[in-house]
Amino acid sequence: DVKVTQSSRYLVKRTGEKVFLECVQDMDHENMFWYRQDPGLGLRLIYFSYDVKMKEKGDIPEGYSVSREKKERFSLILESASTNQTSMYLCATTFGRVSGNQPQHFGDGTRLSIL
Amino acid sequence: SQQGEEDPQALSIQEGENATMNCSYKTSINNLQWYRQNSGRGLVHLILIRSNEREKHSGRLRVTLDTSKKSSSLLITASRAADTASYFCATVPYPGYSTLTFGKGTMLLVSP
Asked: What are the pLDDT digits (tens) for A50-70?
């Protein structure tokens, strides 16, 4: 089974801090994704990556950046955290170059609170 | 941008009953996927149905797709308390597209 591990289940940070959320997968999948999930808004794609050092903006990239230095690890960075970034953050992976034809495998999420 | 819209937003049934959730979408699709999310956890993939398919089964799950109506339904037969979760549909608009667009989900509560 694919295992997608997010470094923290719960995280509390202060406004203005630089926040790192880490995601690691063990199945050599090419594609990795970061979503945020908010009540009433569903899942929204922040960034995704289809290869090492490659990244593509999703629907809501503002205020975020990403890093993928190794195939198995995809980091989401909040450059200067704000209260409106309080949310559940979900990482996902898929196999293969044409990732839309494959199921996505999700981690358990990081519930981030910005105070 | 939101593509799929699930209906109803919430559904409450008794164990043993069937649960039907619907998903409508706006533009043509290459495939449509259904996911389940237990409270506080990540999403789990259930079924992928391609645009040239009309129906797929997996255990107690049955998914139908009507591309003329731009809609899909997920049927869970003989529901169990463990089926309590949120269910999401997600669409891929054309072959080679890399990302999914998720709906807002249906929250299913199955009471013993």
From this structure: 999 999 999 999 999 999 999
Q: What are residue B43's phi and psi, to 5 degrees?
A: -85, 150
Of A90, A88, A86, the residue nearest A5 (C-alpha): A90
Q: Within a 10 A sphere around the Cβ of A80, how many other Cβ atoms?
A: 11
**Is the Cβ pair A109, B48 closer than 8 Å?**
no
Return the structure tokens found at B99. 């990302």
User: Which of A10, A50, A90, A101 to probe by mutation at the B interface, max B CB count within 10 Å?
Assistant: A101
Q: In what order do the strands lie in the sheet with A64-70?
A: A4-6, A19-25, A73-78, A64-70
Determine whether the interchain pair B1/A59 forms a contact, defined as Cβ–Cβ distance below 8 Å: yes
Task: For residue B36, give both structure tokens.
Answer: 């389940």
Q: 3-state class of A83 per DSSP?
A: helix
Residue B4 φ then ψ, to 5°: -85, 145
Residue B96 has its nearest CB partner, among A90, A98, A104, at: A98
Task: Give the whole-angstrom CA distance, residue A107 versus residue A75.
Answer: 13
Are A90 and A107 within 8 A, CB to CB? yes
What's the pLDDT tens digit per position in A85-108? 999 999 999 987 766 788 999 999
Partner residue facing B2 (CB), from A31, A42, A92: A42
B99 CB neighbours in chain A (<8 A) are 33, 45, 48, 58, 99-100
